[in-house]
Design brief:
- The chain is of the alpha/beta class.
- The chain has eleven helices and ten strands.
- Strands 1, 2, 3, 4, 5, 6, 7, 8, 9 and 10 form a ten-stranded mixed beta sheet that branches.
- The radius of gyration is 25 Å and the shape is globular.
- The N and C termini lie far apart (73 Å).
Length: 348
């Protein structure tokens, strides 16, 4: 066979193979709808969220929605999910991952999506409870027996106490913690100068950091430090599983973190709209809110929280709204005080 004929034959063979593969994929995709097939179509929802949500969403919330949707429509729906530090998943969405719904640790990350043009504006504020899905306060986890006698944030400022802390440059939880460490002083009648002094002293004592609340918890469990500032939910979850090596300390005053749902409309195909809207609506249903409480998150429906007797008492709680909202809190406290004054002082 001549070389030209061989080349033509190879090209023809390649085209046949490509056509066969394409036909096979088309048949596979169309299989549920072929005559005689009774299997329902499988649809997907793409969800990105911050680290501590993963087990609850994958193991409880979504299966409940999945069953409800199939009972209503006859369609099967699967969750494609990714969970990491809130700042990390926000960066991923800015880079173009096809998330349809996001649940972020703080509104600042949602506002970054607006600044990047990923969402057209703070539309989450039109959702129930201003887009806040659930809450959890920031508490202190100490070693068994509390050998350092830590009872409040002020004790973390004592010389010689080792503090393990998520990194505010990547972790939404870390930024909530900064507000708790600073503003709790003012909630208890202290001055701005006293609040600054406490924040600076705590950061002089930080001995380990990690990118997310989940990662820094691993550092604490590996033996770093005397105390960890973290979400109540994280600690309760391990207590119920018998895996908690430490004790919970509830500060007199601390912040309730509030977790924001964002819908990424530009990634939602028209035929997906009804499914995504139904899923987001379900997130505020009583069924879902009760699951949050079961998993250690505090519901936005306050009357449901009585169902969890392990929620600790906080005499003087506060939210970011009392600091003027996240843009103001970031400008004045996270950037103006922590980044521009405390960090240079402690040499980090």
């Amino acid at each position: 066979m001549h070389r030209v004929d061989q080349l033509n034959w190879r090209l023809l063979l390649q085209r046949v193979i490509i056509l066969c593969l394409a036909g096979g994929l088309l048949l596979y995709a169309a299989w549920p709808w072929l005559p005689g097939r009774r299997g329902p179509a499988v649809r997907t929802i793409v969800l990105y969220g911050f680290s501590i949500l993963g087990e609850m969403m994958n193991g409880a919330v979504f299966p409940e929605f999945q069953a409800e949707w199939e009972a209503r429509t006859g369609e099967r729906v699967e969750l494609v999910s990714a969970f990491s530090a809130s700042g990390t998943v926000t960066n991923q969405m800015i880079l173009g991952v096809p998330a349809e719904v996001a649940i972020l640790s703080l509104e600042l990350d949602a506002l970054r999506l607006v600044e990047a043009g990923i969402v057209p504006g703070p539309l989450w504020r039109d959702l129930p409870h201003g887009g806040v899905l659930n809450r959890t306060p920031f508490i202190i986890l100490v070693r068994p027996g509390n050998p350092r006698a830590i009872e409040d944030f002020a004790d973390l400022a004592r010389p010689g106490v080792g503090v393990v802390h998520p990194d505010p440059l990547t972790s939404g939880g870390a930024q909530w913690a900064l507000l708790a460490e600073y503003h709790s002083v003012r909630m208890l009648g202290g001055t701005d100068a006293e609040a600054y002094a406490q924040l600076e002293a705590i950061w002089h004592n930080v001995v380990a950091q990690a990118a997310s609340a989940r990662a820094v918890r691993t550092q604490f469990e590996s033996g770093f430090g005397d105390a960890l500032i973290t979400y109540e939910q994280e600690v309760l979850s391990d207590r119920w599983r018998g895996r908690l090596e430490g004790e919970i300390v509830y500060p007199q005053s601390t912040i309730f973190s509030e977790h924001i749902v964002v819908i990424l409309d530009r990634n939602i195909a028209p035929e997906q709209r009804e499914l995504i809207d139904a899923f987001v609506e379900f997130l505020w249903s009583e069924t879902a809110q009760r699951i949050y409480v079961d998993y250690g998150f505090r519901s936005v429906d306050e009357h449901l929280n009585a169902a969890n007797p392990d929620f600790g008492l906080i005499p003087f709680p506060f939210t970011v709204d009392e600091l003027g909202g996240w843009p103001q809190a970031k400008r004045e406290i996270v950037d103006g005080i922590w980044r521009n004054q405390v960090l240079p002082e402690v040499g980090r």
